[in-house]
Amino acid sequence: MGETTAPEKIRIGLTVNDVRHDLLVEPRTLLADLLRGDLELTGTHIGCEQGVCGACTVLVDGTATRSCLVFAAQLDGAAVRTVESLAGADGTLHPIQQAFHENHGLQCGFCTPGMLMGACELLERTAEPDPDEVREALGGNLCRCTGYQNIVRSVCAAGRTMTADRNSTATTTATTTATTTNGAQA
Amino acid sequence: MSTVEDRPTTDTTGSPRENGGRRWVGRSVLRKEDPKLLAGRAVYVGDVALPGMLHGAVLRSPHAHARIVSIDTSAAEAIPGVAAVLTGAQAAELVNPMPAFCAEPVPQTAIAIERVRYPGEAVAIVAATDRYVAEDACAAIKVEYEVLPAVVDPEAAMAPDATRIHETLDSNVAFHRTLDFGDVDADVARAHTVVRTRARWHRMGAQPMETAGAVASWNPFDQSMTVYSNSNFHNFLPWAFAGMLGVSTNRLRMIPCAVGGSFGSKHFITKVLAIAGALTKATGRPVQYLEDRVDNISANDNVGCDRIYDAELALTEDGEMISLTLRIIDDYGAYFQFAHGQHGNAMAQPTGPYRIGSLRYDVSCVLTNKVQQGFFRGAGADPGNFVLERLVDKASEELGIDRAEIRRRNFIAPEQFPFKTPPGNVYDSGDYAAVLDRALEIAGIDKWRAEQERLRAEGRYLGIGLATCQERTGYNASEWWFLYDNPPLPATSTPESVKLDVDAMGGVRVEIGCPLWGNSPETVVSQVVAEEFGIDPADVSVTYADSTTGAMSAGPGGSRLTIMLSGATRGASRTIRDKMIRIAAHAMEMDPDDVECVDGTFRAKGAPSTSMSMAEIGMRAHLFFHDTPEEESSGLVAVHTYDHPYSTPPSADRKDMGAFYPMVSHACHIPIVEVDPETGVVTLRAYYAVNDCGTLMNPTLVEGQIVGGIVQGIGAALMEEYRYGEDGSLDTPTFREYLMPSMHEVPEIVVEHLETPSPFTEYGVKGAGEGGRLVAPTAIASAVDDALKPLGVWVDELPMTPERVVGMVAGAREGRP
Fold this sequence. Notes:
The complex is a heterodimer of chains A (186) and B (817).
Chain A: E1 10-16, E2 19-25, H1 31-38, E3 57-60, E4 63-66, E5 79-81, H2 95-102, H3 112-125, H4 131-138, H5 149-185
Parallel strand pairs in A: 1-5
Antiparallel strand pairs in A: 1-2, 3-4, 3-5
Helix pairs in contact in A: 2-5
Chain B: H1 34-38, E1 54-60, E2 66-72, H2 74-77, E3 82-87, H3 88-91, E4 115-116, E5 122-128, H4 131-140, E6 142-147, H5 154-157, E7 173-181, H6 184-189, E8 193-201, E9 213-219, E10 224-229, H7 238-245, E11 252-256, H8 270-283, E12 287-290, H9 293-299, E13 307-315, E14 321-333, H10 341-346, E15 358-367, H11 381-399, H12 403-410, E16 419-420, E17 426-427, H13 432-443, H14 445-457, E18 461-464, E19 467-473, E20 496-502, E21 508-512, H15 521-533, E22 540-544, H16 561-587, E23 595-598, E24 601-604, E25 607-613, H17 614-623, E26 637-642, E27 663-676, E28 681-692, H18 699-718, E29 749-754, H19 771-787, E30 797-798, H20 802-813
Parallel strand pairs in B: 1-12, 8-30, 10-11, 14-15, 21-22, 28-29
Antiparallel strand pairs in B: 1-5, 2-4, 2-6, 3-5, 7-15, 8-13, 9-10, 9-12, 13-14, 16-17, 18-27, 19-27, 20-21, 20-26, 23-24, 24-25, 27-28
């Protein structure tokens, strides 16, 4: 970028997928372009650049946000989560991703990161949404391939799986605690 | 001249009748493509970053029709970071006009020279260090235009004194032809009833979520170019792209990227390739040009048919359909680059699933000041289905025959296949009545009729739609040129190849020539390999070939890929499997006929404990030539090219277009709508579809194609449309104006399958990529008709936007036709 005379840049601190970045950004740089360009997180896709399609949805401090409508300079101190944060380094898919896989909730995959991040926010709020709740929450995200119903199924299924996982973890923890307590008594 | 008797005989040992014991073909194997897409790790063209890469942007014309008086690029060039600014004339010194796919009457350049002929046409292009700077530079370019009268209405464009789009042409009618198949006049003369409709199908666009793009990198030292892109034709027409880019064909390397949807719109992307190519040649640096949404909607080859039909269906008194006449005016926009391919395509199934004996097809392709037509899912057969089914519904009304019954009376019967249609295309197989009956059953028609009656008593309008349509699959590119006599190009077979190899440790790799376009080529190929070797599809590795490998592929399009990949992969698998049998037999000192491949093991028939693994044979074949049969060369690699399973050339007099699209799927759709005649809003209450695309390769994935297609069809029926102002300006350049279905507009869609295997293809598969969109629009039109029947409404124009529905209701009240 040495050939450009950059406009006055703004210093921000941004945490993306748990990694802290100290950045100098142009005032007009959109979060979507910062993520895809400077931070090389190309999993976030840009579909329309005007907030209609939702493909670029990421979480900003936990809230589903269109990264094409936010300037990076607005986000000093914020925590951003993108699709790259979901799967494990060993290739284990996040339960939401796994549910999309099992329910054929994607075809070309271009809108999928936005759908997944929107689903993350929804499932944080509503553990086991019904189909109407999913359609309400993700209704602003366009998909041109699937016809949506498998996306709705995927998100509902993810809610059930994640709830079951939480319950079984809770049960295991409770059991472990009980055992320890018994052991202590003995 | 094709006759049905010429049809090929295919090895059908994989078809269910001979072999019910298939293990992998027919199973809903989870998609192999998913994990990288889900993780955000697939590489789309926008994700490609090369060292020193510049970014392109395009300045577009705000006018539909204008003369470019002057262009001043000096201010743009002065902006720091700008590496090149090119006008059309400057770009023309670096790249050639775009390829024409038949006999385009005028050359078309990717950037306008002297005159712009549609709103959004490129006027100048820029390469800069980033996209922001490139767009700054576009804004700094000064263009002086002399605005010319815009030709917007295709019928007005046909007048001899109309403003001409191209001064070098005598007329705006780029192509006209009347083709008669059978004795139309005699059939009409003996008809009891002729029903007519004047139908309007407006232009709609594919609108994939990802726009088109390319990263081009010119190497001036060896005069070679590398292009990453989301074009589908990198292994079909790379020679044509090389000609446009001014690169010798053997020095162009086109690398496919993951594609974020296409639906027909990214076959060529010639404008994008030319823009990136001109900029990399001008700068000597890699250049990425990725359309933004306005670029894509206004200027890509994203647009489907734009037709006015005057159509007539002649019937006997008892409802036998005997002749069809279609007079079509098709608004092609400013150029005819892809010629009349969409009418060639429509020629595959103009008479639908019915035994209509004769056809008159009269087509005028007209030029106007709009972006040219490209391709969109359905590719010309979509409005054909709409019009034919509207005529059938009208005949049902006029003759007083129930709409299911009139269809049943005219269906081609199962025993009549293979069936030769009037224009010459052959249908392979089907059981249309069974599909209709099952659709009526799963929809629970009686329940909905009762609901309709109940709601009507409340003043509400529920409608039940019905459409029974064809989906011609396994396309053949001859359709692009065969309406012409001259040049008399022969028919193509539109082949598909794969390269399969088994490595020294027994691992199977397949390299395919098509890109990942949102469909599932890796999964399909893996299922076929798994079927042939008895291994797990998860163990098959599939990669994508760039254009330097010699792969042949026309990619996904015309619902061909599952058919063609199945054929190519099965052929390659059998070649290698047979070689492995011979090597194993030699090693086990047996006759090859006594060795079989079961579960990935090569074993003696009847003595399974005498066996060799894939790895044992692999190692022997790769390294130990002296331990293999004398006639065998080392290695286990096969390229198999699968030519179109059944195509015949058209007759010289074009009385018979030949068999070119003979794998024909069929569907019956029953949508349930509620219409508010006051607001014009159409709400889908339920949707039922029964589909027969032969043997299902992977039921879940087929259902995904059908449901996705139906939802695009809902868009076509209710909201999608390119709208133009009187001055030719495009009123729908973004997703705020060009509306598409969201989750809120679509119901839960119920899909069932029947399976009538194709006798022409491996395993009996047919295509399924376009069926949803080929049927849904006309089915929904029928539903709206049914809802508003008490008001006397007849739907003959799509999309049925609220404004149009209100207009139709008002028109019916006033007694307008």
